[in-house]
Specification:
Number of helices: 6
Strand order of the largest sheet: 4-3-14-13-10-9
CATH architecture: 4-Layer Sandwich
Oligomer: single chain
CATH superfamily: L-amino peptidase D-ALA esterase/amidase
Order of helices and strands: EEEHEEHEHEEEEEEEHEHEEH
Number of domains: 1
Radius of gyration: 21 Å
Strand content: 25-35%
Helix content: 10-25%
CATH class: Alpha Beta
Distance between the termini: 27 Å
Length: 384
């Protein structure tokens, strides 16, 4: 499916070779997509999955990376976040799934590490698992996601450009009340004569239809059905209706530029600016959680049990980009987040799920005509 850049949406900044988070050296991503139907009970259909993001690949699990987190709205979950806040370090995979599968995936990560990196379980593990809610298309209370799926996602991780749209942990998600899920993008940032890469991956399940904006042009009034907005699908009674924009978004930012943990946190704080360029105002009913890490300085922030007497240990140091040179990295974050969300939408398809629910894909041709009328794309739209 074509990305936002492929279809000609005007997007700023220089992307990396694959325009993906995997342009950051060492980063790998694996998706496991779960789509099943129960012919005897359509209410039990599965439209869900697991995504694994490995900062240093499978061989690098256990080697810390500088890391920071930020929250726009806290109606969501990201396990392991307190330890990241305490130490500024990330030592394992980042897992994305649905809201009610967090515990299962958490256990699955521990089981995989116990089987494949047994030394990593000699002390303690605090896996990072984040979620968004897919209960419109997916029977979220069913045990569709297993610990084995978490292991499978880790094993599937590669440095290839990851699939986008309704895949992995984002399979059953919606974004601006179109088919949502996974999107990715990257930017090249030069500093000190070196070209660094900053990449992002989003799991998008946020935004109301009327908010959607592309390249500054409002497109929330597109001629497209909006089944999720129909009153009553969520209702236990007429007084309980899911409001537009309910959902969540998880964004992971990665860079190979050397950063302090506080600088990673500063990158994570810029994520909402990229989301806002696509229209969202940040709903009270949306868990908007962000994590950023740097693959430079491998292991410098390790903090397991010490070995030997302290007088035989040594000080450690971190290379980092000077704070007064961070603006280009902030800009890259905003640009890449915006593009990743748009990629999630443009690379998607109509998707049916449980109980006859379905979600349409973004009508890209209508968006393109709207941009033509605004003078942002060449051509002559056929519609007035």
């Amino acid at each position: 499916m074509p990305t936002a850049r492929d279809v000609g949406f005007p997007l700023a900044g220089q992307p990396g070779p694959a325009n993906a988070v995997t342009d950051v050296r060492g980063v790998s991503v694996g998706h496991v997509t779960i789509i099943t139907d129960d012919p005897e009970d359509p209410h039990r259909a599965a439209r869900t999955g697991v995504t694994a993001i490995l900062p240093r690949g499978r061989d690098g699990i256990g080697v810390t990376a500088a890391c920071g987190i930020s929250v726009l709205n806290g109606n969501g979950e990201m396990t392991g976040s307190h330890w990241i806040a305490e130490t500024g370090a990330l030592g394992g995979p980042i897992m994305l799934t649905n809201t009610h599968a967090v515990g299962t995936v958490h256990r699955g990560v521990i089981d995989w590490i116990a089987a494949n990196r047994p030394d990593g379980t000699m002390e303690w593990l605090l896996p990072v698992v984040a979620e968004t809610w897919d209960g419109y298309l997916n029977a979220i209370n069913e045990p569709h996601v297993t610990g084995a799926h978490a292991a499978e996602a880790i094993e599937a991780a590669s440095s290839d450009r990851p699939a986008e749209g309704s895949v992995g942990g984002g399979t059953g998600m919606n974004c601006y009340e179109f088919s949502g899920g996974s999107g990715t993008s990257s930017r090249i940032v030069s500093f000190g004569g070196v070209d660094y890469v900053l990449g992002v991956i989003v799991q998008a399940n946020f935004g109301s239809r009327d908010e959607l904006t592309v390249a500054g042009v409002p497109v929330g009034d597109l001629d497209a059905p909006n089944p999720i907005a129909a009153d009553g699908w969520f209702a236990a009674d007429v007084a309980r209706v899911a409001p537009p924009g309910a959902g969540s978004v998880i964004v992971v930012v990665a860079t190979d530029a050397p950063m302090l943990p506080e600088q990673c946190q500063a990158l994570a704080r810029r994520v909402p600016l990229g989301l806002a360029r696509t229209g969202t105002m940040g709903s009270h009913f949306s868990g908007d959680l962000f994590l950023a890490f740097s693959t430079a300085n491998p292991g410098a922030l390790d903090s397991g049990f010490p070995h030997g007497p302290a007088d035989r240990d040594a000080l450690r140091s971190l290379d980092f980009v000077p704070w007064n040179r961070m603006d280009p990295f902030f800009r890259a974050t905003v640009q890449a987040v915006e593009e990743a969300v748009l990629n999630c939408l443009t690379t998607n398809v109509d998707l049916a799920g449980r109980s006859g629910h379905w979600m349409p894909a973004l009508p890209v041709d209508q968006v393109s005509r709207r941009l033509m009328r605004s003078g942002l794309l060449p051509g002559h739209p056929q519609e007035p």
